[in-house]
Amino acid sequence: MSVRLYALDGCPWCEKAAEALDDAGVDYETEWVEALHSERNEVKRVSGQRGVPVLVDDERGVTMAESANIVEYVERTFA
Predict the structure, then answer these.
(1) Statement: the pTM of the whole predicted model exceeds 0.85
(2) Are the CB atoms for 31 and 44 separated by under 8 Å?
(3) Is the pLDDT of residue 9 over 70?
(4) Domains in the chain and their CATH numbers?
(5) Are the C-beta atoms of 52 and 6 separated by less than 8 Å?
(6) CA–CA separation, 13 vs 75, rounded Å?
């Protein structure tokens, strides 16, 4: 899978990012993360920080955080 979304269940910002991906028809995989920041080692490894959501687009070499940035990227790239 070339697009992955790191998300926390119940996170409104993660839901906003997922909705943008769904609306654009992007095939992506959701990587569910732990509620505790200290347990989010995979997110830290891929993005350098532990916050979510984080989008990883391997095909385009893009990794980004912040739901507003993700939504803008999805709309610009996939819409």
Answers:
(1) yes
(2) no
(3) yes
(4) 3-78 (3.40.30.10)
(5) yes
(6) 16
